[in-house]
Design brief:
The complex is a heterotetramer. Chain A has 22 helices and two strands. By secondary structure, chain A is mainly α. Chain A has a domain at about 285-525. A two-stranded antiparallel sheet of chain A has the order 1-2. In chain A, helix 4 packs antiparallel against helix 5 (about 90-110) and helix 17 (about 385-400) packs parallel to helix 21 (about 485-505). Chain A is globular and about 75 Å long. Chain B is mainly α. Chain B has a domain at about 300-495. In chain B, about 75% of the residues lie in helices and about 0% in strands. The longest helix of chain B has about 30 residues, at about 155-185. In chain B, about 70% of the residues are buried. Chain C has a single domain (about 1-90), classed as Helix Hairpins. Chain C is mostly helical. Chain D folds into two domains: about 1-130; about 130-515, no CATH class. Chain D has a two-stranded antiparallel sheet. Chain D has a two-stranded antiparallel sheet with strand order 3-4. In chain D, about 70% of the residues lie in helices and about 5% in strands. The radius of gyration of chain D is 31 Å and the shape is globular. Chain D contains 25 helices and four strands. Classes of the chains: A mainly alpha, B mainly alpha, C mainly alpha, D mainly alpha. The interface of B and D includes residues 164, 175 and 303 of B.
């Protein structure tokens, strides 16, 4: 079976075809680039549907010989064999579906990108391969490999197609995530060195089967395992990101082109959550217990910190950036709860936030395109000129603040439910974040869509940025045009998904149940 | 005398090939009229190196053996490292073939055969079984290198580089020789195996330790590691690009050959004061660890400030030497494996980078990193190849650099206790190195160009670039290729005599 | 006893050479100082060959090789100096500082 | 039919979706979609109600999400209370849909308005069908959404924007309390189902302390939604919305949801004396508190808004005093007469295009239908005998007397006095006296009058479901026959009557006949007047405490973010950069320096070795 390889590498076809398209043929590039994201989408949905019908995902596992680092005589035959291994379970599957969906939508939304479209799509597709690979890998080395593909692709996408301070944002991204990755690499190296394998299942076996203790190439003490887990969590905390490692996220959110942020906020941040669950809980369940409190604490800090800072921002992208910080805190809260509800909540929150932030940034892209600015102080009363857009924006805000019936609620609710079992007092403090979420999202969105349309000159005087000159102000070209057919499609799909998940979360919860149960068994609870 | 004539001289076939080629080229260079282009000579030299490589490869299945009273050893270690050295040499000679400095290239013939002599030195070093051969081959390499550095006779920078190289090289030679003299004094023999055996009975720990430190410092000159790294940036910058590539790759490999042959063979089982009385080498591990850490930090940090590409790569090569030294400092069973793998990969990605820099220097006469701006627009494939080499140097997965680095990491943490601090330093300096590697990528892909578009890559350079790029990609995505080869060396089980 | 004396002499010579190599401005003197260091090593070798714990002829041989190599190195050094002098009109090593930072 | 009760909310939902998709094309015709949908809902709800009158509770559940071994469900539960509320909500909603056709005619976003109304109605109907806390919470927030959207309907008005935001945030504060309480209960009982929770209370799995904590937290949700002190401030501001919305959401249905929630969880509340006392106290305080503010308001809708707060306080008081039936009874009558009052007020506003009662007057003759209907509403709310309000208020007073603290009883009586006073102050100011330049004021269309008429009838008739004289049908049905009328002293009814007439008389003196100066009170105690006019400075207190505290913390964190977090990152980068510069400068180009560094390195190693003797670490 090559199913997973096909799934992960199918955008490669698009990359190859794009190479032969003339740089100037933008329509063709847009079309081809979007079409290239469709095969993984179809395959992912197919797998999703089939697994819903009872297909066993293990049957998709793939393994191929890749490299054997050494065959020293005192080692067993299996030691230091790194294979090309892909394999998914319910947990990976939901993330893969999320990735595939958002990639297609981001490709659609990329019609607003006008410069050097060819290179843009090449890297966007590379990014998709990386993301799909991260969630499909069944082996630490390949996980890391795909992770770094996303790192490079994002660096280029942000640095080349971003806003004014794009290079700085790209470096921020690179360095923070590079440090996270480097730490992760050390952990991977330790695990690989001492167990002789990088396969998740084998690692799990080696770490937890007392009989396998003897097969370890070098001992892994309890103390050592705690350090390893600490390293893992720290590495993924940078990717998530947890306060105080969040500064890169703000820059990337603000500077990157909106379709890229759709993928970044939608999927890449979730790698942090995925990693913590897959490796943190999956490989070190016993040790994870001792970190649960810290995680929950950081989760609450994230929630409140992000929300309180989002309150002060007057630039829509920054509001959304800090809200991402806040929402990722909810993921940490779920993980810190360390019970079924919490873990499931963390995953649901990841997916939900993926959809919601994608929607938000899709709209931000349209807004920036139409009005030339996303500064809240310079906007107002948009409902009059752009009723449809405003409706979508309001929906995004409501989803962001966790309105029941929309996806955001499901994640937040389940995560908090989890924490209320284990640490009710902490959870109650964190719940304040829900109030702040309502304040910042409504404040931002209502200031844009409600009220009087802003007089531009007044806005400039009122603006706190002295460098804002009338010339830099976005002058709507002619009349302001509402969301149009092609742009509305991704927005509509996202809203539909958000509503679907919000109304019937079992859609996502069903594939997760088995995984969560396995993890809870590992946790011995 | 009988021994000499009854020896199995075929074991030295690669050396003979290189030597014969060098002498032939020397004679031809003298004989040919000055109007004739010396470019074919460089191609011939490259072919000779490639031929020697094939000869070496053909000998892989052979049993380990030694001739000439165990002064010349042909063990797995020798074969393996000779292959790397020859690969680096052949590729560097391709760069020589296309060497075209602004003032003209009247000494290309010399360039080719001097590089062959240096290569011969490096090869001999890999096969040395005796202090004396080790010393002589080291000097053959060094003295030839001094000349290579100064080959641009009319360029002040090249002259200065040669002078600095000679002075520092001389001091290093003296220090190392001083250490050798103590080792000889304690054992009364120059055979490496013999020294190791006799040292087990000696009880002069202080003198021995002093000898060790002297040798270590002396070797660090060739490795360009702290504290003897400072010459490298100046010499790399001043030397002609093919020579720089040669120093960065072949000399460095030779340095690690020297490190392993000399320090490991002699001191692995020598008694010591200190933590590990059974092995002086192990008790000196902390020193090497600290030096490795400092080398990584200094190399990657100072590189941040460089604008000259050659100088930047000099610091980058110092950092890489630090990674290699870290792999050595771990002293795990993966040590030689990981060093060989890293050096192989390092050869490919570095020569690839230098080939492109050589082209830029040929075309623009400058090696400022501005020369890279907007390369993507005019020469997308060239830019992509350089991007690949840079990513590999940065250790990004999907390239060979990652696999090599991973192997070093594994070596660092597999021992008990693991070298976690060193691993952390390596991880952090790797991230710091992202800044300057990605800065070059930014120049390549993001910035608009101000300079005239570069011309097409000449045949020699494109051969080198294609070979290196394919190698970097192949080892990155299918590392099995390289590791299967490594497996055939039997993990250098016959390394210690 | 005798060995120690030779060793001490060699060490002193070595240090003198080193000091000179690191402090003298004139490159010719620097090169000569390096020769001095190498010669100090030769004293060591010869002394060990005669009075060492394991006297052997290898030390003499080594010293001969070292002398030859030192000569080669000095020759190349002087050649480099001459080339340097041609372009810079100076033999002062401290003026060879255009490559830095 | 009860098993099909889940269909009831779907009609308005369908209307919402249809109007969202096609509303712009249908324009004014959108109203028919909304009216038809709610009519169907109403009919269906009545069928369900009738079914339930003769039957027993029906419950059905479907999986919503599984969490490990626990399955969270959604479903419907047709208890007596739910069936009653279902019909009530559907009825008022339908009437408001009809009324709005006239009131909103010509508005640019006419279809949007109906869409939002549909959404709200769907949510409210869903809320009253919920069999568990989770579902209740979901719809609880959705009704909030409907309210928010409709308050902000006039989006271009800054006041409407602020009011909508405030409404959402203030109720959200309460909602978080609700959420926390609900989750705490969940981990005690492993279920959100009302039945399971009640069972847990019954068999003692739920500790009393936890019960108290949880229900008080849930009660915070009710406080927020029902505009109780201290989270009431959003409700008067919510009057920025169109008047039919005020009638439907902010008088008859949504704000009563708090009362409904406490009623639905009544067994849980009953288990905790502290909780009951809290409910009663908050209710009683709110009743008098809001009534006093109502005395001095000059905006017709705000008077009604404070009146609503006050009446909701009554209901809470009733619940706290243990009289579940009285609360629901008053909820019902209040829904009718308050909706009537709001619709009538809307008719007045429609006619005179102002909301300031001081600019009105003498409208009695100009609005021949509206004025008498308003009078009926005012009499009913004032508790004049034979009107619906009289019976329900009497029931509450009786409950407060028998079960509650005396103080709360007297507060309730005082509030009744104030209620009749400010209602008739309003009545006299608007309808009596000289007409003030409203020459063109005329009665509204039939589509507006008809719903008012229906409500007028109900404002009288609904009282007779539960009277001391004709039996207590409602009580018996709601409690499955376990209801017994409070044996309250007869003088309470008399007292209530006296109080209500006294209020009306006083209002007549001041505003009708103008025998007393209007500034009689404000001239004597100006600071009291000022206090009331500024709503006891509650908004200002919030602004100075909570809001400024949050904004202060937020600013502090902004500095932390910019200087500490970013600063540390920059410091690290700066150190690396400085090291790079230093290292670069150290590379001074002198070959001899390089050698010296080497020798120094060697010397350091040798010295350390000599000192430590090989024991490096």
């Amino acid at each position: 079976m090559m199913f997973l390889s096909l799934l992960v590498f199918s955008p490669l076809l698009g990359i190859v075809l794009l190479m032969f398209v003339r740089k100037t043929d933008e329509r063709m590039i847009q079309w081809l680039g979007t079409a290239a994201t469709v095969p993984p989408l179809i395959l992912a949905l197919f797998a999703f549907v089939q697994s819903g019908r009872g297909f066993r995902l293990e049957r998709l596992d793939e393994a191929r010989d890749w490299v054997r680092l050494t065959d020293l005589p005192f080692l067993t035959d299996a030691a230091y064999v790194i294979r090309y291994e892909l394999g998914i379970d319910g947990l990976s599957l939901v993330f893969i579906v999320l990735t595939a969906v958002l990639a297609t939508l981001a490709a659609l939304a990329s019609m607003l990108v006008k410069t050097e479209k060819k290179g843009y799509f090449l890297w966007l597709l590379a990014l998709e391969i990386g993301m799909l690979g991260v969630f499909s890998a069944a082996n630490f080395v390949w996980f890391f490999l795909f992770l770094e593909v996303t790192l490079v692709a994002m660096f280029l996408l942000v640095g080349k197609w971003g806003g004014l301070e794009r290079e700085r944002a790209a470096y921020s991204y690179l360095l923070y995530n590079g440090l996270g990755s480097a730490l992760l690499l050390v952990v991977i190296a330790v695990l690989l060195a001492r167990t002789g394998t990088a396969n998740f299942a084998l690692l799990h076996e080696m770490l937890h089967n007392p009989a396998a203790e003897g097969q370890l190439i070098a001992p892994l003490t309890a103390e050592g395992r705690r350090w390893l887990l600490g390293g893992l969590l720290l590495a993924f905390a940078v990717k998530l990101p947890a306060v105080p490692f969040h500064r890169w996220l703000i820059r990337v959110h603000v500077e990157a082109p909106p379709p890229v942020v759709m993928l970044h906020a939608g999927v890449l941040l979730k790698i942090g959550a995925y990693g913590m669950i897959r490796f943190g809980i999956g490989l070190f369940p016993d040790e994870f217990r001792s970190f649960a409190g810290v995680l929950a604490l950081f989760g609450v800090i994230n929630v409140l910190y992000g929300a309180l800072l989002a309150l002060r921002q007057r630039e829509l992208k920054r509001v959304l950036a800090y809200s991402s910080v806040s929402h990722m805190g909810v993921v940490l809260i779920g993980l810190g709860a360390l019970n079924e509800a919490g873990i499931q909540g963390a995953v649901l929150q990841s997916i939900a936030h993926g959809l919601i932030s994608s929607l938000s940034f899709l709209l931000v892209g349209v807004l920036a395109h139409r009005m030339g600015t996303t500064d809240i102080n310079r906007l107002g009363g948009l409902t009059k000129a752009m009723p449809l857009f405003s409706g979508y924006l309001l929906t995004a805000a409501l989803a962001l603040l966790g309105l029941p019936g929309l996806a955001g609620f499901v994640g937040e609710f389940t995560s908090f439910l989890g924490l209320f079992q284990t640490k009710p007092a902490l959870a109650a403090v964190g719940a304040l974040g829900l109030i702040f979420a309502a304040v910042y999202s409504l404040k931002a969105v209502l200031d844009i869509t409600f009220g009087r349309p802003r007089d531009r000159r007044e806005a400039v005087v009122g603006s706190r940025e002295p460098q804002a000159s009338a010339a830099s102000l976005g002058e709507p070209q002619g009349g302001v045009v509402d969301l149009q057919g092609k742009e509305a499609v991704p927005a509509f799909i996202l809203v539909a998904l958000i509503v679907a998940v919000g109304v019937y979360p079992q859609l996502l919860a069903a594939p997760l149940t088995a995984v969560v149960k396995t993890m809870m068994n590992g946790l011995g609870g | 005398m009988n021994d000499v004539w009854q020896s199995d001289w075929s074991m030295m076939a690669p050396e003979w090939i290189v030597l014969a080629a060098a002498i032939t080229l020397l004679v031809m260079d003298l004989a040919l009229p000055s109007s004739r282009s010396r470019r074919p000579l460089a191609w011939g030299a490259a072919a000779a190196a490639a031929l020697a490589m094939i000869a070496t490869a053909a000998m892989i299945p052979a049993e380990s053996a030694s001739i000439l009273h165990d002064t010349f050893r042909l063990d797995a270690f020798a074969k393996a490292f000779k292959l790397v050295v020859l690969a680096g040499g052949a590729l560097a000679l391709l760069l020589v073939a296309e060497w075209a400095p602004k003032e003209g290239s009247p000494h290309r013939g010399e360039f080719a055969y001097m590089m062959l002599f240096a290569l011969l030195g490096a090869m001999m070093m890999a096969s040395s079984g005796d202090l004396l051969t080790l010393f002589v081959s080291l000097e053959l390499l060094s003295v030839s290198s001094y000349i290579l550095a100064g080959l641009r006779k009319t360029a002040p920078a090249s002259n200065e580089a040669a002078l600095k190289y000679v002075i520092n090289g001389g001091i290093a030679t003296a220090i190392m020789l001083f250490g050798m003299s103590y080792v000889f004094g304690l054992t009364g023999t120059t055979n490496l195996g013999g020294i190791a055996r006799r040292l087990q009975e000696t009880n002069e720990p202080y003198m021995l330790a002093l000898a060790f430190l002297l040798l270590l410092i002396g070797v660090s000159f060739k490795l360009a590691t702290v504290p003897f790294h400072m010459w490298a940036p100046d010499v790399y910058e001043g030397a002609p690009v093919p020579a720089t590539a040669f120093f960065a790759v072949v000399s460095k490999t030779a340095g690690f050959v020297l490190l392993l042959r000399l320090l490991v063979t002699i001191f692995a089982a020598a008694p010591a004061e200190g933590r590990d009385p059974s092995s002086l080498l192990l008790s000196m591990q902390p020193v090497i660890t600290v030096l490795a850490g400092l080398t990584m930090i200094i190399g990657s940090v100072v590189a941040l400030r460089q604008r000259s590409l050659k100088r930047l790569l000099a610091y980058s090569s110092i950092a890489h030497a630090g990674y290699l030294l870290a792999g050595f400092a771990a002293m795990s069973w993966a040590m030689i494996d990981s060093l060989w793998m890293y050096l192989l990969v390092y050869t490919l990605m570095n020569i690839g980078t230098f080939a492109i820099i050589a082209h830029i220097v040929n075309e623009t006469g400058s090696d400022d990193l501005d020369g890279l701006t907007g390369l993507y627009r005019h020469r997308p494939l060239l830019a992509a190849a350089l991007g690949l080499f840079l990513l590999s140097l940065a250790g990004i997965p999907g390239t060979a650099g990652f696999i090599a680095k991973l192997h070093i990491f594994i070596g660092l943490v597999v021992t008990e206790p693991g070298h976690y601090v060193l691993a952390a330093v390596m991880a952090i300096t790797t991230v710091i190195s992202y800044v300057y590697y990605f800065n070059l990528i930014v120049q390549l892909f993001f910035r608009p160009t101000f300079t005239a578009p570069l011309g097409r890559l000449p045949a020699g350079l494109s051969t080198a670039v294609i070979f290196c790029a394919l190698g970097t990609l192949a080892i990155g995505w299918a590392p099995g290729l390289a590791y299967d080869m490594l497996a055939r060396f039997g993990h250098f089980g016959d390394f210690l005599p | 006893m005798t060995l120690s004396a030779y060793l001490a002499l060699a060490l002193i010579l070595f240090c003198i050479g080193l000091y000179g190599a690191l402090t003298k401005r004139n490159t010719v003197i620097v090169l000569i100082c390096i020769e001095l260091m190498l010669n100090a090593v030769n004293i060591n070798f010869v002394a060990f060959a005669k009075y060492g714990a394991h006297p052997s002829v290898h030390g003499h041989v080594f010293a001969l090789f070292a002398i030859a190599v030192a000569a080669a190195e000095a020759a190349v050094g002087l050649a480099a100096l001459i080339a340097f002098y041609r372009s810079r009109k100076t033999v002062h090593v401290d003026e060879a500082n255009s490559l830095k930072h | 039919m009860m098993n099909l009760a889940w269909v009831v909310p779907l009609f308005p939902l369908g209307s919402f979706i249809l109007l969202l998709l096609f509303g712009r094309r249908w324009k004014q015709r959108s109203a028919y979609v909304g009216i038809a949908a709610t009519l169907l809902s109403l009919l269906w709800a009545l069928v369900v109600l009738v079914d339930r009158l003769g039957g027993s509770t029906y419950e059905a559940n479907w999986t919503w999400m599984t969490i490990g071994g626990v399955t969270l469900t959604v479903g419907i539960s047709v208890t007596a209370l739910n069936a009653w509320m279902l019909a009530l909500v559907a009825l008022v909603s339908w009437l408001v849909h009809v009324y709005s056709q006239g009131y909103m005619a010509g508005d640019e976003r006419f279809s949007t308005f109906y869409a939002y109304l549909g959404l709200f109605t769907f949510a409210m109907l869903g809320l009253v069908l919920s069999p568990n806390l989770l579902q209740a919470y979901i719809f609880w927030e959705l009704v909030g959404l409907g309210s928010f959207l409709l308050i902000g309907f006039y989006f271009y008005k800054e006041e409407a924007k602020a009011a909508a935001k405030k409404a959402f945030i203030m109720t959200r504060i309460g909602d978080v309390g609700f959420l926390i309480g609900m989750m705490l209960l969940f981990w005690q009982t492993h279920s959100f189902d009302y039945d399971d929770i009640f069972r847990a209370v019954g068999d003692g799995t739920l500790s009393p302390g936890m019960t108290t904590l949880a229900v008080i937290l849930i009660f915070i949700g009710a406080i927020g939604k029902s505009g109780q002190f201290p989270l009431h401030t959003w409700l008067p501001d919510a009057m920025e919305g169109p008047t039919p919305v005020s009638a439907l959401i902010h008088a008859a249905t949504m704000v009563a949801a708090g009362v409904y929630l406490v009623a639905a969880l009544f067994p849980l509340y009953e288990a905790s004396h502290t909780a009951m006392m809290t409910v009663a106290t908050i209710g009683g305080v709110t009743a008098i508190f809001a009534a006093t503010i109502g005395l001095v308001q000059t905006d017709i809708k705000r008077v009604l808004a404070y009146s609503t707060i006050s009446q909701l306080g009554y209901m809470m008081l009733a619940l706290g005093a243990g009289s579940y039936v009285a609360a629901i009874f008053h909820l019902t009558t209040h829904a009718f007469f308050k909706a009537l009052l709001f619709l009538a007020a809307g008719s007045v506003i429609h006619a005179v295009r102002t909301q300031n009662i001081e600019e009105m007057g003498g409208l009695w003759r100009r609005l021949p239908w509206t004025a008498p209907l308003f009078l009926i509403g005012a009499l009913s709310i004032s508790g004049v005998p034979l009107f619906a309000g009289f019976f329900s208020k009497d029931e509450i007073l009786a409950a407060a007397w028998t079960n509650g603290p005396r103080l709360l009883f007297w507060l309730a009586v005082a509030a009744a006095l104030l209620t009749s006073f400010y209602m008739f102050r309003l009545f006299f100011l608007v309808f009596s006296g000289k007409a003030r330049h409203h020459e063109d004021a005329h009665e509204a269309s039939a589509s507006m009058v008809a719903p008012m008429f229906v409500l007028g009838v109900l404002s009288i008739a609904s009282g007779y479901m539960q009277t001391p004289w004709f039996g207590s049908f409602l009580g018996e049905w709601l409690t499955d026959g376990a209801y017994r009328h409070e044996a309250a002293p007869g003088w309470i009814a008399v007292l209530a009557t006296i109080v209500s007439f006294a209020g009306i008389f006083l209002a007549w003196l001041m505003y009708g006949a103008q025998k007393m100066p209007r500034d009689w009170l404000s001239a004597r105690v100006p600071y009291v007047d000022e206090l009331l006019r500024r709503h006891y400075y509650i908004d200002d207190i919030y602004r100075l405490t909570v809001v400024s505290l949050v904004s202060w913390i937020s600013r502090l964190l902004a500095y932390v973010d910019r200087f500490l977090v970013e600063g540390l990152a920059r410091l690290a980068a700066g150190i690396v950069g400085a090291a790079a510069s230093a290292g670069s400068r150290g590379q001074n180009g002198q070959a001899q320096t390089y050698g010296a560094v080497t020798v120094a390195g060697l010397a350091i190693l040798v010295v350390i070795f000599a000192l430590t003797g090989g024991y490096w670490l």
